[in-house]
Amino acid sequence: MSNDIEVTIHNKDDVAIINIKGDVAAVTGEAIEEAYQEVSLIGSTKILLVFDKECYINSGGIAILIGIVSESQDNKQIIRITGLSEHFHKIFDMVGLTRYIDIFPSEAAALEGF
Amino acid sequence: MLHHAQVSLNTSTYDVVRFVGDAEPYDDLIDNCGSAGRMRDGNQATWEHTEEPNLMELEKTFELHIPSVLGFEKVVVDFAASVGKILHLPAERIEDLKTAVAEACTNAIEHGNKMKPSARVSVSFTIEESKLQVAVQDEGSGIGQATPPSLEQTISRKKERPRGWGIFLIKNLMDEVEFETRPGGWNVVRMVVRLQE
Question: Is A67 near chain B, with CB under 8 Å?
Fold first, then answer.
C-alpha cells in the first residue's frame, strides 16, 4: 500500500520540473531522489518540485527531501516547491525546510522570476 | 424503541425536540412526537433534529490492531480522521492527528516490531470529556528516545537519512505526548488532543 508514487520530469525553459503524486515515504521517496539525480546529471540548477494536493508525506519522505536539499547546497542548485497542502506547508516550516527552500502557492508563481 | 433515545420537549411559542441517540428509531420518534407537537394549541412545531450521538453516552474506547506491514498505518489514519470529525475537531487539528498517528504507527511497525508482519500494533482511541487520547503500542523491546534532530547539522554534515523526525513531529503536533517502555515487553506512545469547549 505504501508503494504508490508517480514521479515525472519535464522542463520549462531552464527549470527542471519534478511532478510528485502519491505517497512520499522512506521507500517511495527514492523515486524522487532518482529524479533529482537525473536532472542534476544534466546540469539543472533550477529545480521545481510540484506536489499533488493529495500527497501523503511522512517523516521518511521528509528525510529524503532533507537529503536532496543538502545535496543541492553543494551543487549550487535552487529548489522551489509548490502544490503542498496548508498542513504540509506547516510541517515543512516546523522541520525547518523553509529556511532552505521557498514554497509557492502555484506552479505559475513558482516559475515567475525563477 | 424509545429507550435508545432521549427526547426533551420545551414549551414556549413553539416546541423544540432534540434527539440524542441511535439514528435508527428517529423516524418513529419524529412521527410520535410530531403528533404530540401538533396537539399543542394547534401551533406549528419546529423540530431541531440532530443525528449527532452523545459521545459521552457511547462506548468511549475504540481499538484497532494492525499487522506490522507498512501501509496498514493508513487504516488507522483514516479511523483517526473519522474520530476527529465526530468530535468536531477543526480540520487542521484532524490533519495534525492524522500525521501524528501515522508517525507513531510507522515507528511501531519499523522500529518497535522490526517489520515482523505477525507482530501486532495495537491502537486505542479513548474519548474523554475534554480530550482524545490515542495510544499506539507495539511488541518491541524498546526503541529508546531519539535525539532531537537538527536540520542544520544534517545538512552541513551530509548525514545519510536523518532520523528522529517522526517523534519530533508527534511532539510538536500533539498537546501531550508520553512514551513508555516495558523492558522486554512493549513500547507505547500516548498522545493527547485537547477538545475545544
Answer: yes
Catalytically active residues of B are: 103, 107, 163
What's the ipTM? 0.90
3-state secondary structure of A27: coil
Which set of grid coordinates corresponds to residue A77? Answer: 542548485
CB-based burial, A56-85: b 16+ in 10 Å, e otherwise: bbbbbbbbbbbbbbbbbeeeebebbbbbbe
Q: Nearest CB to A58: which of B106, B154, B158?
A: B106
Does A60 contact chain B (CB < 8 Å)? yes
Where do the H-state alpha helices sit in A1-98?
30-41, 59-74, 86-95
Query: Nearest residue of A to residue B99 by CA position?
Result: A58
Instruction: List all residues of chain A from 24 to 43 with a beta carbon under 8 Å from chain B.
Output: 25-27
> B residues 80-119 near A, CB within 8 Å?
92, 95-96, 99, 102-103, 106
Contact flag B70-A27 (C-beta cutoff 8 Å): yes
Element at B81 (helix H, strand E): helix B73-86
From the centroid of its chain, how far is CA B26? 26
pLDDT tens, position by position, B53-79: 666 666 689 999 999 999 999 999 999
Contact A63 B103 (CB under 8 A): no
- Cβ contacts of B152 within 8 Å, gap of 6 or more: A96
Chain B residues in contact with A25 (beta carbon < 8 A): 70, 106
Place of cell 474520530: B83
* Helix, strand counts (H, E) of chain A: 4, 6
**Cβ atoms of residues A27 and A3 within 8 Å:** yes
Q: What's the pLDDT tens digit per position in B34-53? A: 433 333 344 444 444 445 56
With contact defined as beta carbons under 8 Å apart, do B98 and B81 qualify? yes
Q: Identify which of A54, A63, A105, A58 has the alpha carbon closest to the alpha carbon of residue A81.
A: A105
